[in-house]
Amino acid sequence: MAGVLCFNFFFLPPLFTFYLADTQNWVALVAFLITAVVASQLSTSAKNRALDAMRQREEVERLYELSRVLIDFETRKVRAGNKNVRLTPKEFDLLRYLASQRGKPVPHRELLQAVWGPDYGDQTDYLRVFITHLRKKIEPNPAKPKYILTEPWLGYRFGD
Question: Does residue 55 sit within a domain?
Fold first, then answer.
């Protein structure tokens, strides 16, 4: 019995092993491998094209056009109506953060810490002054804002 088991173990190929005796099978194997490599390359190419399309979409999303206000985050330029608006770096950072949270109310503390840093959570007077300046620069009528809206007792929201 031990001899039969040893013979089977050492001289018979294991089940489900790959054995090619015929040359046509080798040709089929090579064709399969080439197909697999080409499919892999095509898949990678399609994935890269999808990533490029997503990057382009994100780039377009960075450029908000809200009726008459245009914000280009790449070049840090703002256009309101027919004129270019000059913003200070803090004003632009404030506008950028509000625009990135478009449609959502942003609490005073979050806005202050995002723009001025973690030490500025309670200085809402800074925020009010900068919001007033921003409204004067980009709103058609700063007394009735369309873009930078006040959320009472909470903070501000960038209009839809």
Answer: no
What is the DSSP pairing of strand 63-66 with strand 148-151?
unpaired
Neighbour count for residue 66 (Cβ, 10 Å): 16
Measured torsion, CA atoms of residues 74, 76, 80, 81, in degrees rounded to the nearest 10: -50
The answer to whether 121 touches 137, Cβ cutoff 8 Å, is: no
- Whole-angstrom distance, CA of residue 124 vs CA of residue 116: 11
Q: Taking the model in full, what pTM does it have?
A: 0.56
> What is the model's pLDDT at position 65?
47
Q: Could you tell me if residue 70 is inside a domain? A: no
Mean pLDDT by 10 residues, the chain (160 residues): 56 60 77 88 92 81 56 81 86 89 89 87 85 90 89 86
CATH number for the domain including 145? 1.10.10.10
- Per the structure, how many domains does the chain have? 1
